[in-house]
Amino acid sequence: MSDPIETSISSSSSAGDPNSNPNPISLLHPRREPFEHGLLPIPKLVFTDPTQTLIPIKQTLLSSSTNTRRVDSAALSQSLQISPDHACLVLDTLASVLHSDSDPLVSSKPDEINSSSADVHDLLLFLYIQSYKKLLPRTHKDSAAVADVWPSTSAFDGYLSALSPLQLVRSNSRRFVPSQADEEAHQLSYLQKHLANILSLLAEPVEGEDEESLVLTMDRFEHLGFLIQFGDKGPEETQLSQHAPFFANSDPDMPAVPVPAAQVHEWLLQNIASALEHISERASLKENGPASASDQDVSMADACTTSIKASPSARGPSFIEGISKSSLVKQASDLKGSSVKVLNCHDSVIYILAPLRYATVYGCSDTTIVIGAVGKAVRIEHCERVHVITAAKRICIANCRECVFFLGVNQQPLIVGDNHKLQVAPYNTFYSHLEEHMNEVGVKATINRWDEPLALGMVDPHDSLSHPAGVSDVQAESATRLDPDQFTNFLIPDWFGCESSGSTKDNPFPLPDVYLMAQQRNQKNLGEIKQLLREAPLEENRKRELSSALHVYFRDWLYEGIRLSVPFAFLAGCV
Fold first, then answer.
1. CB-CB contact of 172 with 151 (8 Å)
2. Which one, 38, 59, 68, 207, has the greatest CB density within 10 A?
């Protein structure tokens, strides 16, 4: 991109010696969170030329923020010409991916986002990356095995003939998330290409010199921590400036001398090049050497033996991948880091009973997934006939069909992309440490916006696909409320015999009256059935036969992932 601003940075005569030999111990990495959870399909936020658009917006935002360099949703709505609701959504999404948990926006209460404010420079970086295009999903290398566990037909397929060609293409494609290495390389390449423009949004001209002499203060440099980090420790533990030779040894009691933007640019480019080379070398070793347990692309045939793979560092997520026709339970002690990705699981029941920052569910079908407490964001994408139960600050649902979401969420569920027959319902389960985990990550049981889904565009402008003209303006199909008569509690078994150690004894989210009444009717019916079973004049051997039959039905219920109106586990305890 031959932008005049980019030229002014890359060709500045003040570059000098960048002191920029990349640290061989701490490699540069992109922060995945903004790219995975921070992209919004709002057309007015996707700029053809981000720099030329954002430079005047920067001046407008700074002029409206007086001396604080922070802007609220009203100023943002006016500057970007977006609705107040979308301005609040921008601030809330930014809060979920910010690199500093000490920022006031992050600590804002869920119902105070409209009166909260964001740092102008963090906001500019957030708006800039709305131009990012995701890496296209790949085809799994073991397509035959995938076809075996992911059915090619469903009850919904008869409807597909009425869909547009775009929807047909999307619905018939079985997508698999790119490997972490491929995604990281793609994100690094994006930063490499756009780095000069990004720096120009943070830099400022030197007083008394021409406008092309741009410098970065240490404070402005720290904002790059929104997009990059060094080593395995996040920006909360190590400031980005401590890895930069031009700031590392600055006197904490004295303001650091601003550094030419060209010097920062050259130093970062060298570090990005080293990181890309490292990824390439690892990929080459993987192709030429024996497969290892840490490979992120295992065959479906081997999925059961490598069902959960911890990321090689605390920086990355734990993976639960390829579970088929089985149950899996993971607690906090089983996970590395504070993020989880559940990928390509089918016909299973998965329990993740842990406090998390982020959770992603991708490419799953006919599966029930319980995700403990998530303090930043949950994303559910390309799933079919999946039930998700989670307590979270926020959730985004993209390109799913025939799924049901039992939610305890502090912000509106975000519905984006090509969705069909989605249903939402109030949260319906608990485990003994749930409230402890919710308090740890900041999820409030007093606020549940499960029934306020916000539908955005049907087309994701970040997916690297070409779209017919006008399709980008079509709104996504929203979710409907689950019929209260179909609402039941979901029982989490006491897998390890330690449920009594926690303080949670019931669902912490209050149920709406209509669902509470339906639940009470179900409980009354169950009580009557229980009494009938107890009073039934059955011989002991007949009672044992009935108990065995109920256990068989319960096992089949778990296997099929079908939630019946009568919880067989309850009945089985009656005979």
1. no
2. 38
Q: How far is CA 547 from the centre of its chain?
A: 42
Residue 31, classified by CB atoms within 10 Å of its CB into exposed (0-12), middle (13-18) or buried (19+), is buried
Burial class (CB in 10 A: 0-12, 13-18, 19+), 565: exposed
Q: Structure tokens of 175? A: 């997508």
Share above pLDDT 90 across residues of the chain, in percent, rounded to a whole number: 52
What gap in Å lies between CA 29 and CA 311, rounded to an integer?
14
Strand, coil or helix: what is 350? strand
The SS3 of residue 246 is coil
d(CA 430, CA 432): 7
Q: In degrees rounded to 5, what are phi and psi of residue 426?
A: -70, 160
CA–CA dist 217, 258 (Å, integer): 4
Instruction: Give the residue from 128, 130, 98 showing the smallest Cα distance to 116.
Output: 98
Tell me if residue 435 falls in helix, strand or coil: helix
Length of the chain: 575
Q: What is the mean pLDDT of the chain?
A: 80
pLDDT digits (tens, 9 = 90+) for 513-522: 999 998 888 8
The model's pTM is: 0.81
Confidence of residue 470 (pLDDT cuts 50, 70, 90): low
Q: Are strands 28-30 and 228-230 parallel, antiparallel or unpaired?
A: antiparallel
Other residues' Cβ atoms within 10 Å of the Cβ of residue 490: 17
Q: Taking 50 as the threshold, does the pLDDT of residue 80 lie above it?
A: yes
CB neighbours of residue 168 within 10 Å = 13
Per-residue tokens: 83: 């609705």
**Cα-Cα end-to-end distance for the chain:** 74
How do residues 16-73 score in pLDDT, each as one tens digit?
444 444 444 589 999 999 999 999 999 899 898 998 999 999 999 988 876 789 999 9
